Records
---
Amino acid sequence: MSSHDVLDLVWLVPALPLFGALFLLLFGKRIGEPIAGWIGSLMLGLAFLVSVVMFFALRDLGAEHRQHVVDLFTWLPSGGLKVEFGFLADPLSIAFILFITSVATLIHIYSIGYMHGDPRFSRFFAYMNLFVAAMLILVLGSSFLMTFLGWEGVGLCSYLLIAFWFERASAANAGKKAFITTRIGDVGFMVAMFLIFAELGSLNYTGANGALAGALRLDSGTATAIALLLFFGAIGKSAQFPLHFWLPDAMEGPTPVSALIHAATMVTAGVFLVARAHTFFEVSGDAMTVVAWVGAGTAFLAGTVALVQPDIKRVLAYSTISQLGYMFLALGVGAYGAAIFLVITHAFFKATLFLGAGTVIHGNDDNQDMRIMGGFRKYMPYTAMAFIVAFLAIAGVPPFAGFWAKDGVLEKVFQSSEYGLWIVGLAAAILTGAYMTRQVYLTFFANERFHTPAEAHDDAPEIAELATPTIAYGDAPRTPFMHHDPHEGNGLMVGPVVLLAGLAVLGGLLDLPFQRIEFLNDWLDPVFADAHHEIAAPSFLGGVGLSVLAFGMALLGLVLGYAAYHRGLQSVDRDPFDERLGPLGRLFGHAYYYDEGISRAVDGPLRAGASWLARVFDARIIDGAVNGVGWVVRETSLGFRKLQSGFVRNYALGIVLGTAALLAYLLIWAAR
Amino acid sequence: MTITASYYLVLAAMIFTIGAVGVLIRRNVLVMFMCIELMLNAVNLTFVAFARQLNDIRGQAFVFFTLVVAAAEVAVGLAIIVAIFRRRRGATADDVRMLKG
Amino acid sequence: MTAVVFFVFAALALAGALGVVLARNPVHSALVLVVTLVSVAVFFVQQQAHLLAAVQIIVYAGAIVVLFLFVIMLLGVDREETLEDPLRFQRPAALALGAIVLAELVFLAGHEWVTGAKAPSQFAIKGGSVALGGNVERVARVLFTDFLWPFEITAGLLVIAVVGSVVLARRSGQAVELVDEDVDEDVEEDVEEDVEEDVDEVEVP
């Protein structure tokens, strides 16, 4: 069986979780816990195995020919637009499906433990499977429209999963917020597709007549428009400024959801799209600058906000936004390999961090306030170890994965002579180190602040009864209420976390900046071969120097964090970073009042605008036009009605008038 | 001078016009009807004039029929007038206005 | 001679026509109408349409005008029309249009219209074989041969007219108001009285 025949089965990869989703939707309730969870995990495990097979099959095709399109059927034969329901197996898509399926499988297994006891257990796994199926369609799609299909699918599932505990108003609102905000970005994606079709006549990625080949022929103006519109869609899905504000609220969903969707997969869809459509960006030039600056700016700003958040998941949410900024920074300077490398390693360590946070939350009676944690290392050693490994990775400490990835990005940025971007990137690195150290110390080390004070009453409210478990900046710290020590998660939860941590370590091996071990870069090369950018590699000393500098910045952040937090919090409502930053701290804490700003804008001018449209434009102008037509007809007929006087003599007059006219005709025309 | 057909035709035209104007101007229903008879007569005169000019008896046959139909029409028309205006003595054509739009 | 007769009776016809239109009293209109009808009959004679002339006198002047007079007596003598026309533009418009139509017709009539059509000899009015007979025979021949079908139909038409006028003019049990409401008070009272009288008359078997 040739490699191409094997690759023809690539459709199995999304089909397996899709089948799982349908099966669980129909029969999940009857099957119940925990088998439903195992079925979901099994589907994904199988998908992972198929992905591995596909990887080897693709590898056998030889570097120049690694591209295989499988068209299942013609989806839209509509006039000039012919879209196949097809999948494209190439280095980029295979790389994505490998890490997506592996991480998703581990998260599913974790969820069996985490979601234990939830009344809608099987529904959860159905949604999760559906989500992964949509994500796989997104990355495996052979055309923009297929990717859009998956794009919309992950948007829907994100809504379903964020609002999974919809009985809580805050969760329902968060789900709506996420869906609506990403939908705004989707408009950009759609208009971009219209433009692509109008200009190039095809939405397919590959092929001589495909969109990417055609992009090279476009003038830079059109290419910029398309690129920026696609980027607008990416901004929505990947939570970059200005459409980033849904992600922190999305933490209302169960933690495995945060791990899967908002760390590893959905948010990377935007990165994938830009990478896939890179040709448009290359031709445009200006678009790449926009991407790079938006990424760098978001990375820095999100990092500042994470410095003072008291909620364990919020810190990770802003951290995700920040790391995504790095990825776009890389894309913006043409360092595609570095960007994808960061995507993959980020998936590993961010999933570890989120799942670890989930265990922490689970183990301390659903409390998410870091101010009343502390010293958990003693009580949940495995989780702590995994968390710390992932922390070192994200902070950029060698030899863990994050270091190689971030260093790769910063090096490429420097080599592109984009020194402004480079400095912003370094600053963000410092911030990453600082806020992650803070989080680790507040949670796992330092003084234990969770003991219930003697005066506390037994009727302190359960977390589940509160309006929202999320602690916003500025909320007063909760009174500790636990009557027992925090506990480690069960085997199903610890196992995946540890495995993911292992991947966070080993992931670095994918792409070391030494010529012969640049596996990922080499693997992805053919996909980006048409890029104009050739970023010169630095000299050996230069490279080392840059790496040392990157590490130094990370270290600086770590030191700052350690200095402030290694003794924990002396008083629960006084946070060292917050105090030292003063008014800046409040600015950071409220995320630059962006959310409030949007609310005010929507409630004020937008609502006024909408109200005007409804009152004046719709009611008066449009209705007026419609009614006006009726009015004109009526007035005309009223005028004509006067002819019907009822008097016979008038009618006779009409007859004579007609006769005169007839005779006139006879005389003048006919008699000629 | 020889009286050619044209003389009769001109005369018929004048009688016809007078009859038409009469229908338009008078309000008494019966007078209006009489004016209509004037118009019919003018038309008959025209037919006979042309029959003579073309030396064709069929023109006269047609006038015969016109006369018959005119008679029937007068009978029915007057019956209608009687039926309508019996109630109101002294009503005029202007008082029958129910077709007013 | 012919010309003199023509002009004299033409003047009479026109005078009669004007009289019909202008007379205030409907009875006068009817009588003057007779003058016009007789003049037209004279013209028929002048144009070798003897049968038609006779029929004209008998039917039109003799029957139709008499019928008119009966109905005038029954209905419309009381009120004379006011000079003022309630529809303001009706009179000027009527006169203008009348003038236009007259001009057109005169113009049309004044020409010699030559179609080149030749009637078959059996339909000749003048001349032709002696066997054709006089005017009455010729008209009769045409009526009973070529135009037999229309002839019979008009007979049916006459029957229908008779039946129709009897039915229409009959007083029905329920009277329907067909005339507009705004008529003077005194006329109302007259109507009431007349209705009473009529009712009495009807009841007499």
---
Amino acid sequence: MEGFAKECAVVTHYRLKASPDGKGVVVDPEAKLEEELIVRPTSETIIWSTYKNWIQSYRDLPILCNQWANVVRWEMRTRLFLRTAEFLWQEGHTAHATETEAIEEARKMLEVYADFAERFMAVPVLKGVKSANERFAGAIETFCIEALMQDGKALQAGTSHFLGQNFAKAFDVTFVDRNNKQDYVWATSWGVSTRLMGALIMAHSDDNGLVLPPKLAPFQVVVVPIYKNDEQLAAISERVDDMLPKLKAKGISVKYDNNDTKKPGWKFAEYELKGAPVRLAIGLRDLENGTVEVARRDTLTKRR
Amino acid sequence: MEGIENYIETLLGDIQANIFKKALDYRASVTREVNSYEEFKVEIEKGGFLLCHWDGTPETEEKIKDETKATIRCIPFDGDKTPGKCMVTGKPSARRVVFARAY
């Protein structure tokens, strides 16, 4: 916890009450906590006090806990997605019988993060190790992936720590090894957060809005009908109804936007803003010719 | 319209590859070696990753941070591992490390 001492949110009261001046509510001084509560900046404390109960022998190892949780690190200057006082993250904590196994685990998780960033987010990352100054408090080594945003600034996108026996010693977590000798366990921890959303947005977006990689887009294809009256819409919808199952059979996610309250031009701008990778537009002429207009979000190019 | 599902399937793969390549090309275009601290102070204003020799001490790293707001992003696993001289102190450097201003 000491590494986060300067950025911890501390709960001191458990209740509000009506303000004496009749305007809104104020902290009830009667409701002061006897023991202050620190909102977790990371989960090592609960994980390691639990590991102390779970681990006795080498047979209990290795052990891995993975969870998604909100954590709080008080920030004076917040920045949406990149640095928020409270954020959702994924954190993993492992304990091992040997140093080698723990180092391998930390490196393996870094590869998992790098693979996700590059193959799914389409964000290239540098893999490496942090200098002592930038290392996680309590770690022997901090491995990281570093991305570069379009404005030329770097963004740390994920970290994986080899903790040595530091946390085991701090929380007194020992095990009996194969030779019946008592030793401290070896550990790792690793995490990524909603900051990855920031990385994704800042790495690909342009002046028209988001550019989402197809592998992560909520829908990969949006279909917009271009029509003047109900008959035309019905005819286009019939053609679309025939096409959608074929796309879905390929595992492609599609949204057909036949919302009658918005004009096609409005929809085009909206889906560009939202970063839909592919937009299909179908009009009367397409029905006659058996064609469809295909627009790519990444290059903003169109073809029939 | 005929065979559109195959066309879209290929297209989605192309888009995924294209945006990755675009980001990779951009990174390559703003990643460069810098050999003197004077040059570093100029280059850091332009953004990107700067590959520099560093003497490995927290003091030098701190000085660079205080004077330029740049930090060592990482000591990369890959890349050039040729030894050299620290751009600030001239002391021996085992290899180039990656500097940048960061979020």
